[in-house]
Predict the structure.
Amino acid sequence: MEQKRLLAIGAHPDDCDILCGGTAIKWAKAGHIVKFVSVTNGDTGHAVLSRAETAAARKKEAEASRRMSGIFEYQVLDHPCGIEASLGNREEMIRLIRNFRPDVVLAHRLCDYHPDHRAAAQIVLDTAYVVMVPHNCEDTPIPQKAPVYGHMHDGFREPRPFRADAAIEFDSVLELKLKVMECHRTQFYEWLPWSVGRRDFDASKLSDREKRAWLLTFLERFKKGTAAARPILCRSLGARAGKKVVLAELFEQSPYSRQVSRRDFQKLMEP
Ligand SMILES: [Zn+2]
């Protein structure tokens, strides 16, 4: 088996878990090398803890998530929230990508709601061409093969809805994906309920079934996308299995990096 290397880059420690955690679990199970990166330390993601306390807690949560999912590495870069697509941040990303030598690099899209998501997407996309230009960051040699870049799913429709070029079902690893998400306790059980007005939310008073139902609400967005990606799933898994898929993670190829056919992009994303 050819071992593949996947590098998923989100803005915050939990973005990759939600957007490609199932795919990562399947890749890791199949013996491939997966690395998650959070471009910020996520330090504004709490209403009670200080920024320093939040960053420290989230670093530990990312490590717990790594152990739970079985991926190779979960790196949280030491930038506070409020990241910008500066030249320095681009160069840091060029070196990170070259050192990891990924087959695939995944990022948010540029039309995401969160300024950190947009900036992280810009930083990653700004490397897509120059990562293979030796005179950029000359201290770090370019990889032998240019990685293919792609985007992780979002539901934003302006200026253009997400286009699924690849779809990976995660019904088969749903329980583990939920456990991986649950590692980010400060987010799913504290910050996110607070941020949507659930000030009385207390995870310690919930049964396991209620906690599972709460976590599943964050995966609702995948249901619609999965329906739209049905033809891809049927081609990939066969019509019978493809029709049964409820939840899939979706990926769109970026036009800025090395291009492969849609069929090959799906193959590349499959574990
Ligand atoms: Zn985020």
The chain has a mean pLDDT of 97.
